[in-house]
């Protein structure tokens, strides 16, 4: 049995006041994940990527199907899933260290344990010197590092990331991509990541899923090794400029734009 097991997942939004018809956002989605898997979901806007993440996070209930995490049904948010959003969602009136330790404090852990965990997580993301700064004093990239540290502080079984790098400049985005891969390698956690960037998806994923326009289904799956090349010591730019990376990028772009008639994955 997989650590995360999703079977026949469908989500249908009920009609609103201005719309008399219901919307089928996801249809018959199956997904399995185990520790060390880094799954990236890619597809056109409206394909249900965020709906799928929200279901896994427990923010949204499925209309049909089952979701199990370590054998237990996912019915609500829980500390076993850490979530990082595109907008950092930090508490601006708190310091960096208080943001990172917020979830631990809410769980009633001893102050000494919170301090040790916060210090360790800030060191992992390279922000130990900014522990007592306010969030608004940090750059966008640094704020996302705080968000990563906060999510990791509670030691979840799974990390859920909804376009966390979408608002960053290109240089900072590549830096945080590399940091995320290093955190993933050290932790061996399950990662579920949403992006609109094909290059980012290929660089990070151990499994790439390409979803169809609404209703969202997983149309193609690819097992990838580009991120493992980086964590094994390869230069990131060399990985992204390699012939097989470029070939896969063009293949996935063709799939998204509906120009590829090949099979469902490799």
Q: What would you say about this model in short?
A:
The chain has 266 residues and is α/β, with parallel strands linked by helices. 36% of the residues lie in helices and 22% in strands.
Notable characteristics:
266 residues; six-stranded mixed beta sheet; four-stranded antiparallel beta sheet; 10 helices; globular
If helices are DSSP runs of H or I spanning 4 or more residues, what is the number of helices?
10
Characterize the main sheet.
6 strands, mixed
Number of strands: 10
Instruction: Please bin the fraction of helical residues.
Output: 25-40%
What is the arithmetic mean of pLDDT? Answer: 92
Give the helix/strand class: alpha/beta
Structure, described:
The protein is α/β, with parallel strands linked by helices. The chain has a 6-stranded mixed beta sheet, sandwiched between helices. Strands 2-1-4-5 form a 4-stranded antiparallel beta sheet, with helices on one face. The longest helix is centred in the C-terminal third of the chain and has 18 residues, at 170-187. Helix 4 crosses helix 5 (140-153), helix 5 runs parallel beside helix 6 (170-187) and helix 7 (198-204) crosses helix 10. The mean pLDDT is 92. The chain has helices at residues 49-57, 96-100, 102-106, 111-124, 140-153, 170-187, 198-204, 226-231, 236-240, 243-256, and strands spanning 4-13, 23-33, 38-42, 64-69, 72-73, 81-84, 158-162, 190-194, 207-211, 218-223.
